[in-house]
């Protein structure tokens, strides 16, 4: 056969081959792809699936290593959508539970960690943010004992060198790296550290007239005006609340000797039935115009005022206009920082700010819930629930947690 005949036969076979469709079969049940011709398969196809970077795939698609989709879309569970990633179905995240110090690796480690501090403190070292751009890390404290110290080589958000998830709570925090530093995406101080709780009147008692301070600080009170928990306990957001008749019901609290120098916060749930003349949520002081800390509705409005006195002089106040509607439960929290910055939150949202000097560290002996230190003011008419005092200015995350406790 001459050269031209061989050439004709070759091209004829090529054309014929392009029209032939045939199955690829393997007697071993495996097809390996060895692109480097080094005896090491980069890709394997078995009855279990396609493995890339693995020789024995355990799923339809099993990838070991990075996956890059530079352009286009990825669909999972469906074949249509408008997003770069469309997931139809469920996604699972396997957390890792740790009980000792951990340095999070730059590659190949989990993104969700459960921190068991029941036996000791835990120190967490984040990887350098510049090496893990886009990395999302979530830390969740699952025991109240001890603390979690978080550091990242000085590259945490706002140049902070470390953060602490405190004892007495089960906080969680989530970070993301932008390539230059770590930023907080979300922080939840669930069950805010009890070591910061200076007074807590749950108002959940079911009988008698003793109002218990569950913080352990001893700031108990007495329900007066003929009211009893048996008769005045009412439905509220955090278990039950205490109803006040607007005539003569109030709580007389023991002497309050609280250190305000590091800031403080007051949190409570309230449902006004009517707005009586300057009726009080709280009025802590030493009598009329004497070192008072008060929260009230001015005149008969549905505004809410927070006011501080030094001796007989008002040193500042903030009024929230149309702060509430009657016959509706709302959560309020007033945070007062050590630099005088005051923020009022309603249902977890900031509704006003001001700068007011902190209350002075004086033993207050005339302390009321639902009554004023001014004899001409009216009594509170409505329901109060879960009144708390913290010895620090709570963060927006902590305030929102308190709001969520009543949801």
Tags for this entry?
single chain; 407 residues; Jelly Rolls; 3 domains; 8% helix
Note down, in words, how this protein is organized.
With 407 residues, the protein is mainly beta. It has 3 domains: 25-62, no CATH class; 96-188, Jelly Rolls (Sandwich); 196-405, Jelly Rolls. The chain is 8% helix and 38% strand. It is built from 3 helices and 31 strands. Strands 16, 19, 20, 22, 27, 28, 29 and 31 form an 8-stranded antiparallel sheet that branches. Strands 17-18-21-30-23-24-25-26 form an 8-stranded antiparallel sheet, with no helix packed on it. A hairpin with a 4-residue loop joins β14 and β15 (182-188). The protein is elongated. The termini are far apart. The relative contact order is 0.10.
Map the helices and strands:
Blueprint: H1 3-19, E1 30-33, E2 43-46, E3 49-52, E4 61-63, E5 74-76, E6 85-87, E7 96-98, E8 102-103, E9 112-115, E10 122-125, E11 136-141, E12 148-151, E13 162-165, E14 172-177, E15 182-188, E16 197-201, E17 210-211, E18 221-224, H2 229-232, E19 233-235, E20 240-245, E21 250-253, E22 264-272, E23 280-285, E24 293-296, E25 304-310, E26 313-320, E27 330-336, E28 341-346, E29 349-355, E30 366-369, E31 381-390, H3 396-405
Parallel strand pairs: 3-4, 5-6, 7-9, 8-10, 9-11, 10-12
Antiparallel strand pairs: 1-2, 2-3, 11-14, 12-13, 14-15, 16-31, 17-18, 18-21, 19-20, 20-31, 21-30, 22-27, 22-31, 23-24, 23-30, 24-25, 25-26, 27-28, 28-29
